[in-house]
Each structure stands twice: as C-alpha cells, then as structure tokens.
Amino acid sequence: MPQIFSLRTNWNAIFGACPVENALCSFGHAELLLAALVSCMMSFRDVCLSLVLCLPPTTPWGWRRWFLTLFPLNDPGSLRSRRGSSSCKETAQKDQNETAEDQSLSAAMPGPEHQPSQALTKPAFSEPQACALVESMFGLKVAKIQPLPSYDDQNFHVHVPRAPSATGGLSEYVLKVNNSESSKNADLVEVQSCAMMFLKAEGFPTATVHPTKGGNLASLMSIDSGSNTQSYLVRLFTYLPGRPIAQVPVTTKLLYEVGKLAAQMDRTLEKFHHPKISSLQRGDFIWNLRNVPLLEKYSSALGQTPNREMVDQVLKRFKDEIVPKLSSFRECINHGDLNGYNLLVEPSSEASGDAEYRVSGVLDFEDMSRGCYVFELAIAIMYMMIESEGNLAAGGHVLAGFESVVPLTAEERSALFLLVSGRFAQSLVMSAYTCQLYPENKDYLTITAKTGWKHLQKLLDAGQKAVEEIWFETSKSYTQP
C-alpha cells in the first residue's frame, strides 16, 4: 500500500516550510495536484489519498467524499489480518464458554517491557485527517469532529448522522489514535478492547469498539514523515454520556460507589479469558504500582526541590516496606487509572435535596495490566482524595465500598498508605517528566499536579498511623448497626 501521508514532505519541499493546510489555502487544488505530480512523480491515486487527508477544514465535505469513493483507504494493519485472530465479539463468546482452567492468568509470562515516554511519538492528526480516517476505515460520514484532551494518545469526539431507520439526531463516537509505542503492541490493544466489551456484556458502563468496514477491532496506519515512518493503531469507540467526576461535587455516597465499582470490575475480570492475555503482564510498565521504584529514572525532572525530597522519601519507604510484601498481595487484572476524568457520572434518579450522582461510564483502559486488588483500591483512593480537596476521610469511604466486595487481608491493609503515597509519586513525577517532552500539552498533563503536591504533603505530614486510623474507622462505620 502506498504511504498515505508521504505527500506532506514533498509539498514542504515545493512550498517551503509552510504547513500543508496553509499551502492548500494559498493554491488551488488543480495547481497543487499538478505540482505534486510533476515534482514527485506520484500516481494520481497517491496524490488524491494524500490530498484528502490534508484538506483544510473549509473544504466542502463533498470533495472528501468524492475522493474517498474513488480512492478508498485500505485497511492494511487490522488486528485480524496481522495475526489471524478472531474478532472481539467472537473471542468474547468463546471466552464465555471456557472454564477457568482454560486460561490461567497467573501462569502468564511477562510480555515486552513498557518503553519510557521518550521513546514514543504522540500522534498529530489534523481534524480533516481524522475525518477521512473515520469515513474510509469505518464507513461513517462525519458531521462534526472535535479534538479531546489526552495524555500521550490522540482522541476525537466524532458526530455522525443516525441511520435512516433511527430517529433523528447524531450518533457519537470517540476516535482513538494510539501513540507510536502502544501501537507496537497490537496484542495488548486487542486484549484491552476485548476486556472493555466483556465488561459491557457483564453490565458495566464501558464503551464498545465499533468495527472497521472489514470487521476488525483496529487498523494500523503508517505515516511517512520524511525522516522515518511511524505507525499508529486507530480505533473507534462508542461515546459515553456524562460528566467527569472531577466536574461535580463529590459526596460520600459517590466515593463509596467508586470503591465498590473498582472491586466489582477487578472481581469480574477474573472470568475474562483471551488467547493473548499474557500481554497484560507488562513487565516494567511505569504505571503499574509494583514499579514505583522505577520512578528514580525520571525524578530528576523535579530538580533539587522539596517536592523531590518528598518523592525520595516515598520511594525509599516503598522499596524497604512494600517490595518485600508484593508476593503476598492477591493478584488480578487492574483497570489501573480510575481518576476523576476516567469516571463519568450522571444525576441519580434517587437524588433528593442535594445533588447526587451515580457512575455512568468508565473510560480509558490503556493502563490495564496484571496487578493486585489493593493496587486498584490505592489508585482510586489517591484520585478521589484529589477530587475531595484532600479530605483524608475520602479514602475511608472508597475503602468501605471496595471492601463491601473484596475485603482486604491484613498485609494489604498495612500496605495501603504507602501504595497511595506511591501512586501520588507516580502521577506527579511522570507529569513533570512528560511536560518536558510535550510542553504544549502542559495544561492537561499537570491536572493532578495543580493540587497533588499539597495533598501528598498533607498525607505525609499526618503520618501513616493517623491516616490509617481515619480510613479504617470511616470504613468500619459502614458495617456498624
């Protein structure tokens, strides 16, 4: 298949350093096409494919659809065609019929190590390019598209007209383009996608994957930037309505529900099976809580500051007190990132008086990995503390919800304080480090850091004994008559 974006470099050679979009605004389509053909000796089809993906937002939609009709983009790197695996629907059906003995999670060997952030390239698709991908790969006509904030992937909110048989209005999706490093592990992406659909079938409010026109879960797009070629996995998810927890008042009832949901998801995922499930053994994946000591590689991003001293304190205690206990924690599959923007809520129908919300959506399974029950709880407590303005008691309400499904062992309880502290360190250190790589994305990358440092300081100042007393007494109050 020709490199779809190869014309970008050639146009820059013709018109200088000006962006393609600006060049298109300055020259007519016919002149651009002729210049590209003469200068680059590209086929008419290659030029059209490149042109349609780079058309400016002002270009009438008819042009894009005309090009795509004549020269449809191929679907070269689908997960099925690359590995001969079945679709998620087929896999999920197979999994439901398998017994627990068929696929042993604990027997899986570690997969490829997670590469640090400096090794990846964040996608930079324009809105017209994203529209072209949706129309060609998924067969949907785009009425409206908007970029969504993201950490190291790229997301778009996509609106498409409903089918004629349905009522009026628009259907909504999320187009997700994985970063270059995640896109190398197609097995992991497939397992994550299938896990989402499995949870949906089990009654959880997760998105589902909209298949490509070929019936695949994802497609691999190769982009020639001149000096090298980057490949990105592209998927389309159903859009989940609701508001992030970070944007609503957080009540004790909602905190309890978050804890309960976290435990229920992990417990339900014990039944999830997939031929590539070993890909969830992610080795040195920096966001897995067992890998908190690896933050030493990145903590220099903090400089010689009091914040660095706090992190060093957490890392030392983690290595001394948590690492020796890791083998005693009960293992499971973790979502791994239940933060205030990955949990959506809607007003509860039971609400009376003060506003009350219920969880209506769980987003972003990119950090899913093989972990431990207490990891999921610690992550949820850390992020809900931030959404509760540092209220230490918030952790107790999350703990109560979690233990209503999965009671902790004595070893897990004794580790909870340092695991929560370790998650604070992970989020804050990697935020600072990633900001150095992508300063243009600073506003999104520093969401946690805006208040996270003071919350970590408050946690450490209070001390483990006092914090545990607050958490455990708050949790205990739920079981008292």
Automatic annotation (TrEMBL):
InterPro entries cross-referenced by the UniProt entry: Aminoglycoside_PTrfase, Kinase-like_dom_sf, Pseudomonas-type_ThrB
The kind of enzyme this is, by top-level EC class, is transferase
Ranges for domain Aminoglycoside phosphotransferase come to: 145-395
Q: Which UniProt keywords apply?
A: Cytoplasm, Kinase, Transferase
The reaction(s) catalysed by this protein are: (5R)-5-hydroxy-L-lysine + GTP = (5R)-5-phosphooxy-L-lysine + GDP + H(+)
Sorted alphabetically, which SUPFAM superfamilies does this protein's record hold?
A: Protein kinase-like (PK-like)
Q: Give Gene Ontology CC terms.
A: cytoplasm
Hey, which family's this protein in? Belongs to the aminoglycoside phosphotransferase family.
Cited function:
Catalyzes the GTP-dependent phosphorylation of 5-hydroxy-L-lysine.
Q: What is this protein called?
A: Hydroxylysine kinase
